[in-house]
């Protein structure tokens, strides 16, 4: 699992958990605060009724007091049921959040002046809040006595109605938070993606870095947390570049140092061979193979160190013809006829002329070496897409399909005979094709006959240098 995905899952889970806990806490806290608010409104309503009762007791006759209070305070019984006030009272004078409070009033002799009959019972003896069970419902009540008139006032509200209002209001507070959770999670995921962009910017130059062009990473825009890692990677790249450079220098220096002694050795063997031809002929062939290996190592060293890759427009047809002319002596010795089939007339491509010449000479030499005498080595040059295809076919033993990828590796010799090559020809050719942004692959002959075809595709336009 990736670090981005792990961090996203953990952060999103933590945030969602905290948000859910906050929502649950907010729900219960809202319910509690609303209960406190309802109790305060019960007390406030009782004190308003207290003032009204005191005023009426002073200004009206005791006989008229009950009728006036009932007309003023008593709600229809339906108004104390669950539901929207606007649905219960059709004239639209109510509000859905009205508290549907019932009132009861007793005089100082315990006679009911206003009795809703919803909470029947004797005159309360204690002031304050209490719960009363009546008519199958639980009622929350607040009772007080007016010291001036001696009247008792009680306000009451059914518990289920209070709960209905509390839950509706609490849900109204919590619902926006719950609806915001997906947006919060999406914002968090986006923020994490943005935070990891500098790491992805560091990944790109590492992925595109070619072995022949190793360079340090730019740490100026790296996050502070990975600056140490970037410096460590740069140190590793520096050591790796030094090791590769030493390897290239060693191969080139060794090949250069060996070339002169091998030339001198061959000259001495040729002189000795004049007197004893049969005794020294095998040694001369061994020296020739060693010289060929040294030359291949020098070519490989130059290709690997081709950091200053500056292609220009060349005529591929001319390069192929020149390469065939250079290997013509090898073909003549085996009576092999090189054949060129060029359908492009002028294949103008952006390439490194010397390297393409090296590629063709290496492939032609291989084809001639493994082809039997009196055969043909055919080279076809055709346009293919936005580039050119060079197909070189011989009539030799070929390479099994399962061995072809391995044959393109360095120093892999599938032919273990004494006259076998150094195992570098195909590797050099593929490396040159890759430097040009092209490809090299091995195939059977199109006519189904014995032999092997090497196909090289090269782009017509200038490639990005150093593609590996």
UniProtKB/TrEMBL annotation:
SUPFAM superfamilies recorded: ATPase domain of HSP90 chaperone/DNA topoisomerase II/histidine kinase (SSF55874), Homodimeric domain of signal transducing histidine kinase (SSF47384)
Origin: domain of life: Bacteria
Any one Pfam family match given in the protein's UniProt record, by short name: HATPase_c
EC class of the enzyme, as a word: transferase
Keyword Membrane recorded: yes
SMART domains listed in its UniProt record: HATPase_c, HisKA
Domain Histidine kinase: 253-462
Catalytic activity from the UniProt record: ATP + protein L-histidine = ADP + protein N-phospho-L-histidine
Swiss-Prot/TrEMBL keywords: ATP-binding, Kinase, Membrane, Nucleotide-binding, Phosphoprotein, Transferase, Transmembrane, Transmembrane helix, Two-component regulatory system
E.C. code: 2.7.13.3
Signal peptide: none
One Gene Ontology CC term in the entry: plasma membrane
Membrane disposition: Multi-pass membrane protein
Membrane-traversing stretches: 174-196
PROSITE patterns, alphabetized: HIS_KIN
Location relative to the cell: Membrane
Alphabetical list of InterPro entries matching this protein: HATPase_C_sf, HATPase_dom, His_kinase_dom, HisK_dim/P_dom, HisK_dim/P_sf, Sig_transdc_His_kin-like_C, TCS_sensor_his_kinase
Main location class: membrane
GO molecular function: ATP binding; phosphorelay sensor kinase activity
PANTHER family (UniProt xref): SENSOR HISTIDINE KINASE YKOH, SENSOR PROTEIN QSEC
Name by which UniProt lists this protein: histidine kinase
Organism listed in the record: Marinobacter profundi
